[in-house]
Amino acid sequence: MIPRRLLPYLALFLVLLGAYFGLTWYQAREENRKTEAKKIFQVKEGEINALVLKRGKQEVRLAKQDGAWFLTKPLKMRADQVTVGAILSTLAHLQKERDLGKSQDLKTYGLDKPTMEVEFTVKDKKRRLVIGSATPGKMGYYAYQGQAPQELLVINSGEKSSLDRPEKDLRDKTLFAFAPDKVKSLTIKIKGAKDVKLAQVGPKSWRWVGREQTPVRGDRVEALVRFLDLARAKSFVNDAPKSLKPYGLAPPRGEVTVVVDKKPQRLLLGAKMGQGEYARKAPAGPVVVTDKDLLAQLTSTLGKLEDRRLWRGQNTAVKKVVWGPPGKTWQGIKEKDAWQITGPGQKAFKEPAVRLEVGLWKLQTLELSHPASPPKKAQGKPLYVLELGDGRGKSLFRLEELGQGKNKEVLVRVKAGDKPETGLIDPKAYQAWQKEMERLTRPPKTPKAAPEPKSKTEK
Length: 459
Hints:
Blueprint: H1 7-38, E1 48-55, E2 58-65, E3 68-73, E4 77-78, H2 81-93, E5 96-101, E6 116-122, E7 125-134, E8 140-145, E9 152-156, H3 157-163, E10 183-190, E11 196-202, E12 205-208, H4 218-230, E13 233-238, E14 254-260, E15 263-273, E16 276-282, E17 287-290, H5 294-303, E18 320-324, E19 330-334, E20 338-342, E21 348-352, H6 353-363, E22 368-371, E23 384-389, E24 395-404, E25 410-415, E26 420-425, H7 427-439
Antiparallel strand pairs: 1-2, 1-6, 2-3, 3-4, 5-9, 6-7, 7-8, 8-9, 10-11, 10-14, 11-12, 13-17, 14-15, 15-16, 16-17, 18-19, 18-23, 19-20, 20-21, 22-26, 23-24, 24-25, 25-26
Helix pairs in contact: 4-5, 6-7
C-alpha cells in the first residue's frame, strides 16, 4: 500500500509521463506529416505495374506479370527483381529537396533536353518524372513531375542514381529460373563423356537413368541443383550472335538441361573466359560470361555421383555396436538417451547417445575409393572389425580391415545385406573415424567432489 505522503508525487509522475508520451506521439506525427508532404508521388511500390526509363532516344520498358517483372523493350526477358524493386522503392519514397516554384525557362535547368525521364503506371494512371541537369555542387538534380512543368523542384543526387540504371543492370542474371525443390530431372552432357540423366524418385533421392543398379549420392545431386540455382551471369556479351563458334558454343563443351513441371531449361557451356565461361540459354538467349566455372563443377560432381559409402543405412536403426581388434572388442547397447559401453575385462560405463552417434555419422562419410579384388592368399584374422545390429539381434552392417593396398590405402571387406564387397578407402578418413571410436573407450570423467568443510576443532 502506497503511503499518503507519496500520492502527490505519484500523481505528478503520471502527469509528466503522460505529457512525455503525448509529446513524443505529436512529434512523430508531425515528422510523418512533413515526410508525406515532401513526397513527390503518393504511391506504394506494390501498386506500380509498368515502368519506362528514357535516356535521350534510348528507352527501356518493363511490365509486371504474375507478380514478377519482365523487360519488354529493347528485348524480352526476365528482369532482375532486386534492381527493379530498388527503383520502385525509390519512386514510392522520392522526396523533393527544394521547391523552385513555376518557371517556363527549362533550358537553364537542363529540362529542355532531360538527362532522364521516368514513367510508371498505377491502376492504369500514368505518372511521370523529368530530370534535368545537376545543381551547383552536384548535390541534387532539377526535375518536374507530370506531362508539363507545374513547378520545378530539386531531388537528391543519390535518388537520381537509384533511378538511373542501365538496361544491362535490369536484366535477370540468373542462368536458370527454378525452385530447387521443384526439379524433376537433370541431364548433363560433357564433350568426350557419356551423357548422364538423373531423375528424382523421392525427397533427396535420385535415379541414374540407364544405370538403375548404380546407387546415387542424392545429397550431391541436391548440392549440384542448388549450385546451378545460384549460378549467375557475370556480364552480357552478345544479344544476337551471328555465330556461336567464337564462344566455343558450336558445338558446346557442355550442356545442362533442368526439367521443372515438364518444362525443360537448357544451358549451353562454351570456352573458358576468366574465372567463368561463355554460356547461352537455349534456344535463343544472349551470350553471357558465367560468374563460376560451371563445367568444372559438373565434371567434379559426375566423378563422385556413385554412392560408394561403406554404410548407407539409417543410424536410428542401430541398437548395438561392436568394434575394435578381434579379441579386444568393445560393445555398445542403446538405451533411452545413452549407450551402455562394455569393454575388455567387462569394464562398463555409460556414454551420452550423441557421442556414439558422432562415430556412426563419421562412418557414413567413409567411401570406397575404388573396388579391389579379395586377397589371393588366405587371410587370417582381420586387423579391426565393426558390426552394427538392430534391436532384434540382426546384423545390419559388418566391416573388416584386411590390410593395406599398394598406395597405403586401407583394404576392407564390408557386408550390408547378403553381398560382401572388398575395396580400398582413404587412410586419413579411416584413421579419423577410428580415433572417434577410440574416444568412446575412455569412460567420461566424473567431476571431483568438493572437499568437506573442516570442523571448528580441525582449524
